[in-house]
Task: structure prediction
Amino acid sequence: MPELPEVETVRRGLARLLPSHTIQGVVSNYDRSFPNAAADVQQFMIGSHVTAVKRRGKVLLLELDTNFTLLVHLKMTGQLVYRADGGQRFGAGHPNDSLVGKLPDNSTRVTVELDGAKLFFNDQRRFGWMRLMPTPEVPNIDFFKKIGPEPLSADFTAQDFKERLQRRSNTTIKAAILDQSVVAGIGNIYADEGLWGARIHPATRVKDVSAVKLNRLYTALRDVLQLSIDKGGSSDRNYVDASGQKGSYLTFANVFRREGQPCPRCGHEIVKSRVAGRGTHTCPNCQKPPGSV
Ligand SMILES: [Zn+2]
Result:
């Protein structure tokens, strides 16, 4: 599933490529992927220009000069691929062969036709969506009203993080950091990596984690997210974006999908278990299970 760093990778690529283009047409073959009425698309999207590409949590916001915004949520298997008529190509999101193959293909749900280029929204499992809405209404949709602060923003402090976690004091720390209303955009990979970095067992109740460890977790989460953005996302299959970069965070992961391998810090074998309903990777030596000490 594309997580915050992959969505940020998409955002940066599209922010470079989309402004200056005029939207000339939209073709959608699946209503739930793009539910807007044709008349609204015609009036507020066709002929418009993308003025900015923003991100909030895992949602992309393509702002148009009609004062409408095209929201995109990639969900499980979504990806966006930009292809210029001259051949330049940029794709990111869910890593599969559609990023580099012939498009449209059988995963293409929406094609946005631009002057001299196309933007493909591919989504094999069809949980993702695109939606056009008036820009002033964007902050009022349920999703944005509930979502927590951006973990990498300058004004998100360790103190904010701890205060927000205290509202979930009886839940496990892993469930709490995966809760998008506590902090935006932390998914399974970064939860496991951050908890390993802070030496906290994911099944520990929030109220049982010391302030020192919560400070460490705040730093560890920001570090792994930033590292992943620097590496172009967490893709575990090789693909190349327009600048020839491979998404490679999983190459640098310390515990995620490393069960059976030695912990890079202490050499103990990494184990996989289930916490907060998710596959969870820990070093049982660095991350003592709750009640064991
Ligand atoms: Zn260890």
User: Anything to note?
Assistant: Confidence is low (pLDDT under 50) at residues 236-248. The first strand starts at residue 23 and ends at 28. The chain is about 25% helix and 25% strand.
